[in-house]
Amino acid sequence: MNTADPSLPFGTARLRTDGGPDAADEDDTEKPVVLVVDDEERIPQAFALWLGDDYAVRTANSGEEAFERLDESVDVVLLDRQMPGLSGDEVLERIREEEYGCRVAMVTGVDPDFDIVDMPFDDYLKKPVGREQLRETVDRLLSVSDYDEAIRTYFALSEKRATLESEKTRSELDASDEYASLLDQLDEQEERMNELMGRMDPDQLDALFRELDGGAEPGAGTPGSADG
């Protein structure tokens, strides 16, 4: 049984680590697998409790430990950026270099800057993160994983655009070469998206736009929509 721990956020409880019935890694083969990586121990514990009903949650408290817990069965990684030793940015790069098939969301206290344009993540959440936002993000990333790579790329680029537009002023965006490059990438990817959508049936299109609209801020746009 979980035991109450006042050191955890929102009155959550401390997970057992003895392999008992509350262990976060149980039933990995029966549920989608989520790996939470954060050097603050209470964060992975809280996220595991929030997600544990529907996902098999693994936790790691460092970048090095993340690779002890990561394998091809992992579907989504929730990754802090600032950690001692191997940083979240370095973990992300290695995940992509070693071609793991998982989706990656950065979950961090670091304010997003224009350097995120070149970072190969799928979503960016600024702490503090609530339970519903976290669950919606994981659900969305799992849904996007079922789509063609072109759609996943468009989704990731759209998330970057929405993140920057929520944090930066219009003058900062207009002055940024990185932001201009991001818009160019979105335009190129939109052509591929339109080609793919021409081969989809109405139900597939409806599901796709629900996923994209769920992750983007108003005004981020989807293929064929007014962009303001």
Automatic annotation (TrEMBL):
Q: Which UniProt keywords apply?
A: DNA-binding, Phosphoprotein
Molecular function as annotated in GO: DNA binding
CDD domains reported for this sequence? REC (cd00156)
Query: What Gene3D superfamilies is this protein classified in?
Result: 3.40.50.2300
Please indicate if the UniProt record lists Electron transport as a keyword. Answer: no
One of its GO biological process terms is: phosphorelay signal transduction system
Signal sequence segment: none
Q: Where is the Response regulatory domain?
A: 33-142
Q: Which residue ranges does the record annotate as region Disordered? A: 1-29, 167-189, 209-228
Show the ranges annotated as biased composition (Gly residues).
216-228
Which positions carry 4-aspartylphosphate?
A: D80
Query: InterPro entries this protein is in?
Result: Bact_response_regulator, CheY-like_superfamily, HalX_domain, Sig_transdc_resp-reg_receiver
Cited Pfam families: HalX, Response_reg
Keyword DNA-binding listed = yes
This protein is called DNA-binding response OmpR family regulator
Which organism is the protein's source? Halarchaeum rubridurum
